[in-house]
User: Fold this.
Amino acid sequence: MANFERLFSRFLLQRSECLDWEHVKGPSTGMIRSYAELPSPSFEEERAILKKLAVIKLNGGLGTTMGCVGPKSAIEVRDGMTFLDLTVRQMQYMNETFGSDVPLILMNSFNTDGETRKIVQKYGRSKVNIVTFNQSRFPRIGKETLLPVAEGPNDGKEAWYPPGHGDIYQALAHSGLLEDLIRSGIEYLFISNIDNLGATVDLAILKHMMASGSEFLMEVTDKTRADIKGGTLIDYQGNLRLLEIAQVPAEHRSDFTSIKKFKIFNTNNIWVSVQAIKELLRQDAIDLEVIVNEKTHEKSGEKVIQLETAVGAAIKHFRNAHGINVPRTRFLPVKSCSDLFLIRSDLYALEHGILKLSPKRQVTTLPLVKLGDHFKKVSNFLSRFAGSFQIVELDHLTVTGDVTFGKGVVLKGTVIIVANHGSRIDIPAGSILEDKVVSGGLHIVDH
Assistant:
C-alpha cells in the first residue's frame, strides 16, 4: 500500500504537469544502436554469459479479450501448445544446448497466480527451473471522487487491479526474489511479454550489454502503420525517455502516431542489470510516469481509473541505457485472433518452441489481417477454419460476417471476404483465392 500511495501522489502531481511538446524529439545519435552491428558471441562465450542470466515473462494478463477464461499464457496457439508450453520448450532446448541452467521466472498478477502455479506443475520433469512471484494489487479509484473503490482487502476482484508491468522492480524486491537472484550469481534479466512469441533469448544482445557496460537495453523495431499506438523512445531535453500514447497531449496525438517523426516503437523486450535495480531501489530512485487507464466497474457501472506504470519507463534511471533496433522477427505478439491467424499458418515453422518465418515469404513484412467479430473469440476462430491454410503470398486479408474456411485454403495478394447480414459464405477445401473480393451470400464451388 505504500507503493500505491507513492503512485497516487505522483498521479496528483502529474495532473498539474504537462509534457512540453517542443522538447520532444526523436532519439539522437547514440541513443539507438543497430542490431546488425552487434558481434555474435562464440559458443564458449555463450555458455559463460548464460550463467549470469535469468528470463522473466510478464504473465499477469487474462485471455478475456480473446474469449478465454484464465491466464492468457494458457491459450493454445500452435500445434496444441500454449504460450507457456512454447516458452518452456525454448528454455529447455537452450539449457540442453549450452549445458546451462537459466531459470524461467513468471511475474503473475492476482488474476493469474493461482491457476499458473497449478499449470507449471506439469513441467516438473523439464530441464527448466520455473519460479513464480506475484506483483502488487492496487485498489481502483473512482474517477469523480478519487477515492478507492475497495473498502477493505477482502473486497471482490473487481475492486482491485494489477498496476502494470512497471511494478516489476518493487515486486521483485518485496518477494525476496531479487536477493535470491543476486546470491545465485544472476547479473542480468531478460524481461518480455508472455504473448510475444518472438521474444527469445538473444546472446548477441546480452554480449553487447556486458561489453558496453549498459545497465538497461530496450529492444525497439521499425514502426509500421499497424504499430502507431506503441510507445517510443524519445530525446526529451537531452535525456532518453519512453513516451506512451497515454502521455501525449490530445492535440499532438496525430504527431505521435505518424511513422515519419517517430520511426521506432518499444517491443517491451527489456534487458536490465540486477545490481542496478537493487541500487536504484535502495535510493528510492525509480520514479515512473503514471499511465491513467479508464475503466467501468463491472457491478456498479461507476467510472474508475487504474494508475499503471510501464517497465520500459525506467530506462531514464539506468546508466548507459539505450535502445537496440532489432529485426521485426523479435516482435511477434498475439493480441487477437487476427494475430493467431498468422501464427497458425504456413507463414511460420516451429523449431524447439521457436517460430521461424518461412523462407518462401519473399517480403519481410507480414500480411495485414483483419478478422471481424465472428472470429473474435478463439473458440469461434477455430470453428471457422477446418484445418491448415496457406498465406505465404498474402498481402492483405479482410474477413467480416459469417464466413467459414475449408482445409488447405490458399490466400494470395489482397483478399476481401464480406458476408452480408443474414448470409453465409463457405470457402471450400483447397480453394485458391488471389486478389479476390467475395461478398454477399455465396458458396464457392470452383477452385
Observations:
- The chain has eleven helices and 27 strands.
- The longest strand covers residues 409-419.
- The chain has a mean pLDDT of 93.
- The chain has two domains: 2-330, 337-440.
